[in-house]
Write a structure and sequence with these properties.
1% strand; mainly alpha; 380 residues
Length: 380
């Protein structure tokens, strides 16, 4: 029987990492028999079939580590965590089905709406409007979940990219939630920060266990099941955290800072596609299939794959540091808004530089364009 620990986050982290590390090779081994492999093609980079069930291993590591270590006594005492686990199962299944056969955007939206409703019933919701305007909170939560999930799916365009950035985001989410938990004397607030610390450290462990098999010459891809799951989990933790008891601006900015890289990537690619006339509408810019994301632009400017990957990781770490500063109780609104404004200015200047990268060629969308990990890029 596993003994109780004063700091279960440590055990959750180690257990999630261990589970992902041992489950991923099993998924690699069974994928061919299940037909869950991305086969080589003329427009793809990999030369052998590669499993696309990476998200399954991360989800199992996430859910099992929480259930096994915390030994929940009842759903009522840990409602938000159960909501995230249940919603995560929804989107993982959605991603698996989408990997086997692409699903329409309407079906995906319905599933995410269902997952949002599940979360709200378990107490995980962006809580801005009063209770009599509960529907508006549901809509806002849905928009946040769809936006972050789409951004993470879009970021899954190189081996180790989405999982690596998610690991960094989860790490800073944990740091902020743990610090809030230690400093707070409000029982309800402390409970939510504790739950966020549990979930985020489980995501970090699961990502690190998976990355061993995905970071270079991938033996397994994250798949839509993984990118959907990571986006959903990070967005859910952000909605659950609240981040400030009495400062709504801080509450809004902290998760945006933590998730700067995926949000910046999808906004940058969308804006530059439209600006450069590659597409004729914003809707087409979002759905355009191209190798013109942040990492692609860095490589087009002369970075190697590893240099581009590490640069994006560095950006994620810096944005996480900004999130820690914004969340610090010792900073005034003027101070953290100045830092955030400076960060946004730097990102705009970076976008101007990245706009010079030769990524469009003849500016015609390609029917078979692919992500650098070999999978078709159909998300953004």
């Amino acid at each position: 029987m596993i003994p109780k620990f004063n700091y279960p986050q440590i055990i959750i982290f180690v257990f999630a990492w261990f589970l992902a590390d041992i489950l991923t090779p099993v998924l690699i081994a069974v994928s061919p028999a299940l037909g869950a492999v991305d086969k080589p093609h003329s427009y793809k980079i990999h030369k052998e079939p590669v499993s696309f069930l990476g998200g399954v291993g991360i989800y199992m590591a996430f859910a099992i580590s929480l259930f096994s270590i915390l030994r929940f006594t009842s759903i009522q005492s840990n409602m938000p965590l159960f909501g995230i686990i249940a919603g995560g199962l929804f989107v993982t299944i959605l991603g698996i089905l989408d990997d086997f056969r692409p699903i329409s955007a309407i079906v995906k939206l319905i599933v995410l709406l269902s997952a949002t409703y599940v979360l709200s019933r378990f107490g995980v919701i962006v809580d801005i409007f009063p209770q009599d305007l509960f529907v508006l909170n549901i809509i806002l939560t849905l928009l946040w979940l769809v936006g972050v999930t789409s951004a993470m799916n879009s970021l899954d365009n190189m081996d180790g990219m989405a999982a690596g950035v998610a690991a960094i985001a989860a790490f800073f989410t944990f740091l902020i939630a743990w610090n809030n938990f230690r400093l707070s004397d409000t029982p309800n607030w402390r409970a939510y920060q504790r739950w966020v610390s549990y979930a985020s450290i489980a995501v970090l462990g699961g990502c690190l266990g998976f990355l061993r098999y995905n970071i270079s010459r991938a033996r397994i891809f994250l798949g839509d099941s993984g990118s959907f799951l990571l986006g959903f989990l990070l967005a859910s933790m952000a909605a659950m955290g609240g981040w400030s008891k009495n400062d709504p601006v801080r509450s809004f900015l902290v998760p945006c800072c933590i998730l700067t890289v995926p949000l910046y990537d999808i906004v940058l690619s969308t804006v530059l596609r439209y600006k450069n006339g590659v597409v004729k509408s914003v809707g087409a810019a979002i759905t355009y299939c191209g190798r013109d994301h942040l990492v692609h632009r860095l490589m087009a400017l002369g970075f190697t794959q590893w240099e581009a990957r590490l640069t994006v990781y560095f950006m994620a770490a810096v944005s996480g540091g900004v999130a820690c500063y914004v969340s610090s109780l010792g900073t005034t609104r003027t101070q953290y808004l100045t830092v955030v404004a400076g960060s946004i200015l730097l990102l705009v200047l970076l976008g101007v530089l990245l706009d010079k990268a030769p990524v469009y060629g003849d500016k015609r969308p390609a029917a078979g364009c692919d992500k650098p990990d070999g999978r078709p890029d159909v998300s953004a």
